[in-house]
Design goal:
The chain has 71 residues and is an alpha+beta fold. The protein is built from three helices and three strands, in the order αβββαα.
């Protein structure tokens, strides 16, 4: 697995939207995005920790390679 970069919540959301995810709703500083039946919660922080980003990608069932290509 390639090393994940440090990105903001907005950058992560934009990359996931390129992969077909749609912003469903926002509750506070967390955005819920969905693609088909798969969804994920993206914290809208200035910088996501690597473990948090890995968890978001795991929820979304997106590989690190796919994510990096969409950045």
């Amino acid at each position: 697995m390639p090393k994940l970069p440090r990105v903001s919540g907005a950058q992560a959301l934009k990359a996931l939207q390129k992969l077909g995810f749609e912003k469903v709703r926002q509750s506070g500083s967390h955005v819920i995005a969905r693609r088909g039946t798969k969804g994920c919660v993206i914290p809208m922080h200035a910088e996501l920790k690597i473990g948090t980003l890995a968890g978001v990608l795991r929820q979304a069932e997106v590989s690190a390679e796919e994510f990096l290509a969409s950045l």
